[in-house]
């Protein structure tokens, strides 16, 4: 009889583990507490129109090789549209275009950077020098990146218009709270290492569709038993082995192996307190911090811009995504505000007022446009914070409980909290399980070559 695996949590981490193990002969059951798969990377039905709306637009980059592999496997790569040009706008509405030239990295972006209107030549030279220094910086200590920026002559204006601009979106944190390790990773993997690393991909469909039909078909064709609206309540642990998972509605489920793929605070709730107290592996999770993201969805009675997206500088939002005319007479723009702590304590109306006001100022076509509808969606614990030294609290996928493996974007993947990190963690958990049953195999995909 093939070994059975119970995966708890149907986000990308749990799904990646399922897609890795099911074709390798494991009997996989996946339980998900909600009525939809893909966890934080999912959509909801807008009550006003019934349309699928993403909780927040998700984008990936060329350097996300495991997410690309996962998308290919389940057959949804065709929904991911590369954005060969990135558009950067300053509050005076001037736009700079960022596009790769057919040159090896890092020269591929040299021309775009040289012509960018939002930094002076002096500032550009400082940035170039900073990037050069950062590339060779050791990351073992992971000191505060802000200190490093100051030490390397990066002024507040340069931080706002270059370093912070990239990092707030990529890491969902403000530069004063970020450690050097992940700041370096973003710039090296995204911009310096490979010419395709920085290529942003935007899904052409809502996330609920992206991780919808094809995914469900793949799981059913590979005999993954998916149980929706089934929440795990407590893992019973005897002699440092999981004996069963007690469910919230009362029954219990058993398997040879268990993979927890829930957020870290949920894992702490699933485990007996005695187990958490006994292993630093688990109790360290209490040190992880999180950061919020707010998505402001706006439907206007006319198009606001021809550009597919805009990266905003010195503004409230960081990205505007132009989803076009989603129903007759309604043009949909979505503004993403990462590390959105400034909204804490504000009502949705006030957030909407600020963000819509900014859109009207930046996009003249919207000055007199009618706002048909808006939705403000905040994920308070959107991602873990990549604060200095965060990796010491991120556990590897092999837990001290013999038959329990752990996945999730917050586990140790050497990636920040991203879809790529989540998929990697699922593959790493599957690798650990394969090793445990004496069938080691490499599943994690290589970086861009
Ligand atoms: C607003 C927002 C914007 C983002 N933007 C981007 C982006 O542009 N690009 C990018 O790469 N990443 C982005 N991310 C991050 C990305 O969404 C996450 O890193 C990734 O989806 C995490 O996947 P996961 O499987 O680790 O966790 P989750 O998606 O949180 O999955 C965990 C699953 O477990 C389920 N669960 C919880 N408790 C139980 C239980 N007791 N029993 C059963 N099931 C349970 C949950 O319902 C959930 O489905 C964003 C995140 C947010 C919130």
What is the end-to-end distance? 40 Å
Helix content: 25-40%
The CATH top-level class label of the largest domain: Alpha Beta
* Bound chemical compounds: flavin-adenine dinucleotide
Judged by helices, strands and strand pairing, the structural class is: alpha/beta
CATH superfamily assignment of the largest domain? FAD/NAD(P)-binding domain
Count of β-strands: 20
Shape: globular
Short characterization:
The chain is an alpha/beta fold. It is built from 14 helices and 20 strands.
Characterise this structure.
The protein is an alpha/beta fold. It folds into 3 domains: 4-41 and 211-288 and 387-436, FAD/NAD(P)-binding domain; 43-100 and 196-206 and 290-384, Polyamine Oxidase, Chain A, domain 2, CATH 3.90.660; 101-192, no CATH class. Helix content is 31%, strand content 25%. A 7-stranded mixed beta sheet has the order 8-7-16-17-18-15-19. The protein has a 5-stranded parallel beta sheet with strand order 10-2-1-14-20, with helices on one face. Strands 5-9-6 form a 3-stranded antiparallel beta sheet, with no helix packed on it. α1 (12-21) runs parallel beside α14 and α2 crosses α14 (419-436). The site of flavin-adenine dinucleotide has 38 residues, from α1, β2, β15, β19 and α14.
